[in-house]
Recover the amino acids of this structure.
């Protein structure tokens, strides 16, 4: 197999949040001719609960392999083993009921991460602060 970085994402306005992996001999292994990695970013100050995790896992079971991984330092959920064809349906269904959404895109150093690393989960990581980091991150973009 080989990795192909970028260039396979079909969601307007989003970068290469999918790392493509292609089988070199797809005729011998048709079930894994594409085995892409999708990275689902945790929105700033959002805590996963069982309802949200179940929702994302149900989506992945329907549109992918069902194989997942949690990235500990970023809070991202990594979906392993999807096809290019499943990208759009996966993205559309990843909108969560609580009004916030999971972001299918690469983690980038945008304002929410440049202000302070504590913004990714807000007050859970920052006990004492002079600034209202989350307010700044959500209102200054």
């Amino acid at each position: 197999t080989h990795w192909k970085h970028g260039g396979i994402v079909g969601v307007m306005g989003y970068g290469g949040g999918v790392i493509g992996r292609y089988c070199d001999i797809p005729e011998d292994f048709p079930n894994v001719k594409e085995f892409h990695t999708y990275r689902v970013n945790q929105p700033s100050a959002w805590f996963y609960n069982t309802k949200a995790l179940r929702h994302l896992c149900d989506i992945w079971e329907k549109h992918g392999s069902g194989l997942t991984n949690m990235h500990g330092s970023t809070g991202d959920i990594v979906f392993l083993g999807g096809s290019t064809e499943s990208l759009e349906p996966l993205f559309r269904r990843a909108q969560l009921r609580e009004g916030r959404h999971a972001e299918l895109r690469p983690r980038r150093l945008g304002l929410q991460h440049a202000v302070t690393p504590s913004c990714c989960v807000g007050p859970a990581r920052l006990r004492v602060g002079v600034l209202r980091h989350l307010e700044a991150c959500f209102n200054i973009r």
